[in-house]
Amino acid sequence: MSALEPTTPSALQRAGWAWRSYALTLPALLLLVAVIGYPLLTIVLRSLSEPQWGLQNYAWFFGAPVNLTVLQRTFTISAWVTVVCVLCAYPYAYLMTAVGPRVRLVLVLCVLIPFWVSGVVRTLSWVILLQDSGVINSLLRSAGFDGVRLIRTQTGVVIGMAQVLLPFMILPLYSVMKGIDLRLVQAARSLGARPSRAFFTVYLPLSLPGVYAGAIIVFILALGFYITPALLGGPRSTMLSTLVQTQVLSLLQWGRGGAMGVVLLIATFVLLALAAPVMRSRYRDAGRR
Amino acid sequence: MEMKPLTRLILGLVCLLVAIWLVAPTLVVVPMSFNENKSLAFPPQGFSWQWYQNFATNPEWSTSFLNSLKVASLVAVLATVLGTLAAFGLDRMKARPANLLRMLMLTPMVVPGVVLAIGIYAVYLDAQLVGTLTGFVLAHTILALPFVLIAVSANLEVFDRRLETAAASLGAGALTTFRTVTLPLILPGILSGLLFAFATSFDEIVVSLFITNPYLKTLPVQIFSSITRDADPTVAAVGTILLFATTILIGGGMLLLGRERKGRL
């Protein structure tokens, strides 16, 4: 081929590229099928076939009050974590948009520093801080709140999980807030709205896409949490993940553990599917502004 | 947005508390690691280096550290190669199949860790991959792949494809074009993918807890079992070392980047 030939790709070349582009993704797809697809399929099959074919594992799961309590608790804890994250992240992300570059750098660093330390070590820190003889309890005691228990309680688990998940709430919220045109708030003010009214009718609705995006991510990640509840929680704050682990590793009940895993998996994907159209349309609205 | 002074003060205070809440747990391990007694009670007593010595000399700790380095390095290379190839493929596909495949490749990020862990454990039991280097590398690679894909794809999106056409029109072959034009331009994406992949593997705990055995433990597994077994401040020493290593790496990277940018201007 001479170098001076026109360079628009011919139909044949394009077909070649289409074929090649699939070939490029093939190694990753093969690994995906082998290390994610096949294992998940195995779990689904085992939940339906052990000890014999049928839905007995699911009937057991939804028939035992203990399991339903844990299922409900998993959702409750995740919801609390999401609420705590939204409440803490909103003012924080707002401040990030309102300050100068130097302070913003410090605020961003505070969000990123938790990622620098291994997740397990961070949970260890919470064990140290929340233990009965720990700093937080001593502070509470000197403030007159005696006998508050944090470790091995749901409160402790929520505190630890929310700290781990907070960055996933702050970052999407910040990216949405950064794009909000503050002149809209000024316009509301100039038309006579009080600052609080301008905030609630103009700024808050515009920032909701970020809240939704962050809340969905946090809630879904929280549902599957394993390490934090395992180390910070007690028997009364067991989450679904721990139950799955107990069934499989301690009781060797692959069918039952598998059924629980499938329930958790389905809950995650249903939430994702429900959230996807909402988030997409919200983003479009925000973009149209 | 204008604010009353009181609102401003409250906002500042709330954010300060949030910042402390974010950062303090990260730093707690530093004083704990110099504890004189074998306890994790806060505040620590006295001063000693013994937990650092224990980390360096106790084979349980040093071996698991080396294992993690080995696994994470292999994962970083493998995930980066597979993820970069896939990102290129997806970039050159029609939008519909590309979106579908991209969603598939991002599933490892949303599948709950324990569900994935029991699945992989079940398959590894049959394939005799429990407690093997291959097993760890394969499992961690699939978990790291989405991060590489995201990083490289973001770079490809802003990459001007006409540069490749220009190189080709000047007579460069496909491989030369890739090596001299495409690769240098998307290198930042590939490098950050590599870093993310390494960090993902080095930090992975849930799947690792299931596929580990006494012969092959990674550092997070060792930390986890140490926490659940007894109050050994060696964990705090490890945490401190990791904290300083990352700080130096990130600080150094930022300094280098800053200098490069200044040099260019």
CA-based shape of chain B: globular
Question: How many helices of chain A does DSSP assign?
Answer: 12
Radius of gyration of chain A: 25 Å
CATH architecture of chain A: Orthogonal Bundle
Task: Fill in the CATH topology of one domain in chain B.
Answer: MetI-like fold
SSE pattern of chain B, N- to C-terminal? HHHHHHHHHHHH
Q: Give the CATH level 1 class of chain A.
A: Mainly Alpha
Could you state the CATH homologous superfamily of one domain in chain B? MetI-like
Question: How would a crystallographer describe the biggest sheet of chain B?
Answer: none
According to CATH, the fold-level topology of chain A is MetI-like fold
Instruction: Compute the average pLDDT of chain A.
Output: 85
The count of DSSP E runs of length 2 or more, i.e. the number of strands of chain B, is 0
Can I get a quick summary?
The complex is a heterodimer of chains A (289) and B (265). Chain A is mostly helical and 289 residues long.
Keywords summarizing the entry:
heterodimer, A: MetI-like fold, 12 helices, B: 265 residues, mainly alpha, MetI-like fold, 79% helix
Task: Describe the structure in your own words.
The complex is a heterodimer of chains A (289) and B (265). Chain A has 289 residues and is an all-alpha fold. Chain A has helices at 11-49, 56-63, 65-98, 101-116, 119-130, 135-142, 154-178, 183-190, 195-223, 227-232, 240-250, 254-288. Chain A has a single domain, classed as MetI-like fold, CATH 1.10.3720. In chain A, helix 3 runs parallel beside helix 7. Chain B has a domain at 67-243: Orthogonal Bundle (MetI-like fold). Chain B is 79% helix and 0% strand. Chain B is globular and about 70 Å long. The model of chain B has no long low-confidence stretch (mean pLDDT 88). Classes of the chains: A mainly alpha (289), B mainly alpha (265). The interface between A and B is large, with 86 and 85 residues.
